[in-house]
Design goal:
24 helices; tRNA-binding; nine-stranded mixed β-sheet; alpha+beta; RNA-binding; alanine-tRNA ligase activity; nine-stranded antiparallel β-sheet; 37 strands; single chain; Alanine--tRNA ligase; metal-binding; globular; 885 residues
Length: 885
């Protein structure tokens, strides 16, 4: 049975059992502050479990893309070293939202595994929750009783809280679970050790394949448990492990989920995969084929590699694969990108985003490979310098701090540094490395740690967003909670009616104020007359975000009467400019597709009151003509004063029929909001102008690259574009006055010509001066051992010093030249070594040692090197040290 057939059979089985089959949610989460990635099948259904949203159906089944490389659930370090851990994996799941519970879920699981998939019953074991006295949780007797109708009681095992009480994170839905384990060992192995003794002991052939979670509780921030409004079922079966069991393999990597990818790696690398666990070559191949799936799906879902957040995680996974292939497969050129076509062929039928985004995914991975391979080559040169300096001091240990700097700043793998050190009979100062790593972790932890208290409920009421129609409204606080972070203590509040747009879809969240009804002089029935912006009772809304379908606004201090009636008012100026920028991104998207082609798709955006940023797929830099044409098209639409057509609650199928643009990586419901300005039609939840004329004018300020195949436009509109042209007008008048001319282009051209002539004259004078200095300095060399040494302090520019040093190197045999300059109050050290001494003295090592005195750094080759620094006062110490050479 192929993996495609196994997946389809699962979905068909649950469809027959009355389940709605839904597509996988994106692997990257954009609207959940608690998670970066979907790390389990239940992630997309969390709001259903918490009661924030109504499910599409009481029974649902799917296959969900999952990623476990951060936070509590992190399998990255295990990948490649065993047969069954993965970064990206598929979770086959069936769900019940207040419909069936333990009896039916257990029955479905047993029937599917034993009667449909035909797994021998004697190979299966199940676990149930044994209870936990510390939380006053009883043993799951119901699960035990249901299981013993299907399986011998000797195969039902009590499991502790760690293994049999499932929790998604520090807080959220949770409950007891019942795992199903399969014993895939040979009969001979089973005779030696019973399978029951190997459950949850990390045996590669006795593995968990299915977990049935019975959601009964919600874990609160204070650690306590509360009953959920209804009982739910959340199950997850590891697709890769199921394939291993059904295809009679001993490793996930031996199934057809991975064998086509492995075959391609073998073809490209010339290395044969043998499946040996300890073989570094085989570990590398497993790492590559696992990681390419994770990276490809993340990019297809809209997450590009970057230096922060989820993008950093994706870059780290990809670089881990590149590092392994470089070190153990000998792959010095990009090749991972060629695996994308294989992945599309194997999985594109079930995951159409791989088909749609294949070109983008391929180009991004290729560019990342090319860049990181250059980093590795650069790192090899730097590690050589560190090694040479270590050896020059007759030491045997590379400084841990410098090895860490290579890893942290330049991305050079620490393991590779260790391997190179061992080849030179050196070691790495592991204690120093670990200390630097711990400092980094503490810095990261300190900047991100946030303590969130439980909600205090003031009134159980359905909260609503009214900000599409109103920017001011009477309201009250339904709930609040305290949060603590590096900036201090704050409160988050939820309003019964909120006019504040929550951050999302690239648009920043609204700011504003809350005026309590007890404010002196404020008439709640006639709010337009208040005019009391400096009253101490006014509450400032610092930001607004969305969490679990709640619109959450941040304030510094809780009002003295949180239960009062309030008047909420959005910052009108910021909202006006923000929505102008948001509307113009829609017009920009359409214009880019018209000018560059329909391959252009939005890949990210930022929309704030001061500017907009728009990322899009395109594989070359836009030229001036293209930029001008796009700008003209957008401004033409603005001038047409096109009225907004808003379809606030339209079925997604109808929206797509009308021609709406949907973005890959976004999660859409059955009903959506469609924004239309003439021929521009997009699915969007943001706020917008009522007609394009409100935008004013659109001006592109910059076009650049953010990743392979991704371009970025930064632009302004509205008030900011008006300010831009006013400032330009003032600057033109000032320059015209300075040049005493209205023909600015001609006047500037004349100045440039004069400047060029003066520069040439100055350079000629410098060279003449350098020739004179060279002649004078020849007399200043001193005999020192096997060399002639020249050490000088000067106030000359770097170019002149370089010319003199190179001239002296040629003319003075057996020479070492050290020049220290304080030109422009900036310390600079230049070292030259004549060619006949380069085997004995290394200019790069000398300059690096001297640079410590001026708090600087630099380097070069054996014959010539330079270093700049920050400590001008250290020049004398550097001179003294130079004279010792």
């Amino acid at each position: 049975m192929t993996s495609q057939e196994i997946r389809q059979q699962f979905l068909d089985y649950f469809k027959e059992k009355g389940h709605l089959i839904v597509p996988s949610a994106p692997i990257v989460l954009k609207d959940d502050p608690t998670l970066m990635f979907s790390n389990s099948g239940m992630t997309q259904f969390k709001d259903y479990f918490l009661g924030y949203k109504e499910p599409k159906a009481p029974r649902i089944a799917d296959t969900q893309k999952c990623l476990r490389v951060s936070g509590k659930h992190n399998d990255l370090d295990d990948v490649g070293r065993d047969t069954y851990h993965h970064t990206m994996f598929e979770m086959l799941g069936n769900w019940s939202f207040g419909d069936y519970f333990k009896k039916e879920a257990i029955g479905f699981a047993w029937e599917l595994l034993t009667e449909v998939y035909k797994i021998p019953k004697e190979n299966l074991y199940v676990t149930i929750f044994e209870g936990d006295a510390s939380e006053n949780l009883a043993r799951d007797q119901d699960a035990y009783d249901y299981w013993k109708t299907h399986i011998d009681e000797s195969r039902i095992i009590n499991g502790n809280k760690k293994d049999n009480f499932w929790e998604m994170g520090e807080s959220g839905p949770c409950g007891p679970c019942s795992e199903i384990h399969v014993d895939l060992r040979s009969e001979e192995e089973k005779a030696k050790v019973p399978g029951i003794e190997l459950i949850n002991n990390d045996h590669p052939q006795v593995v968990e394949i299915w977990n049935n979670v019975f959601m009964e509780f919600n874990r609160k921030a204070d650690g306590s448990l509360e009953k959920l409004p209804a009982q739910h079922v959340d199950t997850g079966m590891g697709f890769e492990r199921l394939c291993m069991a059904l295809q009679g393999k001993k490793s996930n990597y031996d199934t057809d989920v991975f064998t086509p990818l492995i075959a391609k790696v073998e073809e490209l690398s010339g290395k044969k995969y043998t499946g040996i666990l300890e073989d570094e070559k085989d570990i590398a191949i497993r790492v590559v084929v696992d990681h390419i799936r994770a990276v490809a799906f993340a990019i297809a879902d809209g997450q590009l590699p970057s230096n922060g957040g989820a993008g950093y995680v994706i870059r780290r996974i990809l670089r881990r694969a590149i590092s392994y292939s470089y070190r153990f497969l000998g792959m010095k050129e990009p090749f991972l990108f060629e695996l994308v076509a294989v992945l599309r062929s194997e999985m594109g039928e079930f995951f159409p985003e791989l088909v749609k985004q294949q070109k983008l995914v391929t180009e991004v991975i290729k560019e990342e490979e090319t860049s990181f391979l250059k980093t590795i080559e650069h790192g090899l040169k730097r590690i050589d310098l560190i090694i040479n300096e270590t050896l020059s001091k007759n030491e045997k240990t590379l400084p841990g701090a410098e090895v860490f700097e290579l890893y942290d700043t330049y991305g050079f793998p620490a393991d590779l540094s260790r391997i190179i050190a061992e080849e030179k009979q050196l070691t790495v100062d592991e204690k120093g490395f670990d200390e630097e790593m711990e400092k980094q972790k503490q810095r990261s932890k300190k900047s991100s740690v946030q303590k969130v208290h439980d909600w205090v409920i003031l009134e159980e009421k359905q909260e609503s967003f009214v900000g599409y129609d109103q920017t001011e409204t009477e309201t009250y606080i339904t709930r609040y909670r305290k949060i603590e972070n590096k900036d201090g203590e704050f409160y988050q509040i939820v309003l019964s009616k909120s006019p504040f747009y929550p951050e999302g879809g690239g648009q920043v969240g609204d700011k504003g104020i809350l005026i309590p009804s007890y404010t002196e002089g404020f008439d709640i029935s006639n709010p337009s007359v208040f005019g009391i912006t400096d009253c101490a009772d006014i509450v400032e809304i610092l930001e607004t975000k969305k969490e679990n379908n709640l619109i959450v606004s941040l304030i510094k201090d809780l009002p003295k009467d949180a239960g009062a009636v309030f008047y909420a008012k959005v910052n009108a100026t910021e909202r006006k400019n923000t929505q102008a920028n948001h509307s113009v991104t829609h017009l920009l998207h359409e214009a880019l597709r018209e000018v560059l082609g329909t391959h252009v798709e939005q890949k990210g955006s930022f929309v704030g009151p001061d500017y907009l940023r728009f990322d899009f797929s395109h594989f070359s830099k836009m030229n001036e003509e293209e930029l001008k044409l796009v700008e003209e098209k957008v401004n033409s639409k603005i001038k047409e004063n096109i009225a907004l057509l808003e379809y606030r609650n339209i079925p997604i199928a109808e929206a797509m029929e009308k021609g709406a643009m949907a973005l890959f990586g976004e999660k859409y419901g059955d009903s959506v909001r469609m924004i239309q300005f003439g021929s521009s039609k997009e699915l969007c939840g943001g706020t917008h102008v009522k007609n394009t004329g409100e935008i004013g004018y659109f001006k592109i300020q910059n076009e650049s690259s953010t990743a392979a195949g991704i371009r970025r436009i930064e632009a302004i509109s509205g008030d900011k574009s008006a300010e831009y042209f006013k400032n330009m007008e003032v600057q033109v008048k000032e320059i015209s006055a300075l040049l005493k001319s209205r023909d600015l282009a001609k006047s500037v051209e004349k100045l440039l010509e004069e400047n060029s002539a003066l520069k040439s004259e100055v350079e000629s004078l410098k060279k003449e001066k350098a020739k004179g200095e060279t002649a004078n300095w020849k007399n200043d060399f001193t005999e020192k051992g096997d060399k002639k040494l020249l050490v000088k302090k000067v106030s000359m520019d770097a170019g002149s010093v370089k010319d003199i040093v190179f001239q002296l190197k040629k003319e003075v045999e057996n020479s070492v030249i050290i020049i220290i300059s304080d030109a422009d109050q900036k310390p600079m050290i230049t070292v030259g070594v004549s060619q006949d001494l380069e085997s004995k003295y290394h200019a790069g090592n000398i300059v690096k040692e001297l640079a410590k005195e001026i708090q600087g750094g630099g380097g070069g080759n054996p014959g010539f090197a330079t270093a700049g620094g920050k400590n001008l006062a250290g020049i004398d110490a550097a001179l003294a040290k130079a004279l010792e050479h």
